[in-house]
């Protein structure tokens, strides 16, 4: 869950008397540059994830269980870029929330929902790769499109119910009187620990453990294939392709998990250390650290573009409008060596 969380609410009357939206303290050039940079990040996030969504939905060859999880992650990242990033960047640049209390409640709930879904999706991708490598026959038989669609739906629904419980049952946001220009969310100590457990500790531990297992299995397969190559020449090309595919899967999953942890951990570290500083200072620090967390939604499409040749081919066909041609959805975008 993402939001500005502190242990105890300030005295609202005293705080609101001393709070006001500050005057702009930077030059016009810097002010414009900040908005240009924010717009560039938003466009990268929206357009990059939209390319992934179009690619997986349009090309039949990409309708695999793993790519359905990638699609779910891209949808959540796309919505973060569309509905969360623009308002958060405006909030930071202006140093003031300008959209009112009702939209503040909606903004916080949407950001909580989308970012927690992203956590679930990345954990599921790690689990998918582990099962595919450790139990390939079971994976090909039992992990069907119907099963993976049901898992994705349950992930979104569980996240919705979890955030509703934390937001309306566990939190006190709806009863909080906010000062004009503020958009804070107060969460008690118990709910903070529950959130830390379910959104950080459990999924991140799962990701790390599964990635280590995937790496070990991929190395084991590669060594076994290398030994077979010395004895059976006829399977040389097939084994080489298999080895390359497994190594790529381990590499991409590792990069995805590492980047995600780098973007996630600083936010929660700052949240846990908020007691050591004043409430106003922790609010500003955590709100700025959230930029790094949201940037994970911008980085994911870049990872796919760098490591997956099928995504590069799809981008080229989409940007050149070749997908408008008849039967383009049946084009081989994976290539011989993918």
From TrEMBL:
It is found in: Cell membrane. Its main location: membrane. It comes from the Eukaryota. GO terms for cellular component: plasma membrane. The chain crosses the membrane at residues 32-57, 69-93, 99-127, 147-168, 196-218, 252-269, 289-311. The keyword Membrane applies. CDD domains: 7tmA_TAARs. The lineage of its organism: Eukaryota, Metazoa, Chordata, Craniata, Vertebrata. Gene3D superfamilies: Rhodopsin 7-helix transmembrane proteins. Belongs to the G-protein coupled receptor 1 family. InterPro entries: GPCR_Rhodpsn, GPCR_Rhodpsn_7TM, TAAR. It comes from Pygocentrus nattereri (Red-bellied piranha). Residues 48-304 form the G-protein coupled receptors family 1 profile domain. The keyword Secreted does not apply. Keywords: Cell membrane, Disulfide bond, G-protein coupled receptor, Glycoprotein, Membrane, Receptor, Transducer, Transmembrane, Transmembrane helix. GO terms for molecular function: trace-amine receptor activity. It is a multi-pass membrane protein. This is Trace amine associated receptor 14j. SMART domains: 7TM_GPCR_Srsx. Signal peptide: none annotated.
């Amino acid at each position: 869950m993402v939001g500005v969380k502190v242990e105890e609410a300030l005295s609202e009357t005293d705080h609101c008397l001393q709070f006001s939206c500050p005057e702009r303290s930077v030059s016009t050039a810097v002010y414009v540059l900040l908005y240009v940079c924010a717009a560039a990040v938003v466009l990268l996030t929206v357009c990059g994830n939209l390319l992934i969504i179009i690619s997986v939905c349009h090309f039949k060859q990409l309708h695999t269980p793993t790519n359905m999880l990638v699609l779910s992650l891209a949808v959540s990242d796309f919505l973060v870029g569309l509905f969360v990033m623009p308002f958060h960047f405006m909030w930071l640049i202006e140093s003031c929330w300008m959209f009112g209390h009702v939209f503040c409640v909606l903004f916080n709930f949407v950001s909580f929902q989308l970012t927690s879904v992203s956590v679930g999706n990345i954990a599921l991708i790690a689990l998918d790769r582990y099962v595919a490598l450790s139990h390939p026959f079971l994976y090909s038989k039992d992990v069907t499109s119907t099963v993976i669609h049901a898992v994705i739906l349950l992930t979104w629904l569980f996240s919705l119910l979890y955030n509703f419980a934390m937001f309306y049952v566990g939190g006190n946001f709806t009863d909080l009187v906010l000062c004009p220009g503020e958009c804070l969310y107060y969460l008690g100590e118990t709910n903070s620990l529950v959130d830390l457990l379910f959104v950080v500790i459990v999924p991140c531990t799962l990701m790390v453990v599964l990635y280590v297992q995937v790496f070990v299995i991929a190395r084991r397969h590669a060594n076994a294939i290398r030994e077979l190559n010395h004895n059976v020449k006829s399977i040389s090309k097939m084994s080489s392709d298999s080895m390359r595919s497994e190594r790529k899967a381990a590499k991409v999953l590792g990069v995805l998990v590492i980047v995600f942890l780098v973007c996630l951990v600083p936010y929660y570290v700052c949240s846990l250390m908020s007691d050591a500083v004043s409430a106003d200072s922790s609010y500003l620090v955590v709100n700025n650290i959230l930029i790094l967390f949201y940037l994970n939604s911008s980085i994911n499409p870049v990872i796919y573009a760098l490591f997956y040749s099928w995504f590069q081919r799809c981008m080229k066909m989409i940007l050149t409008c070749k997908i408008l041609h008849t039967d383009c959805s049946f084009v081989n975008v994976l290539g011989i060596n993918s």
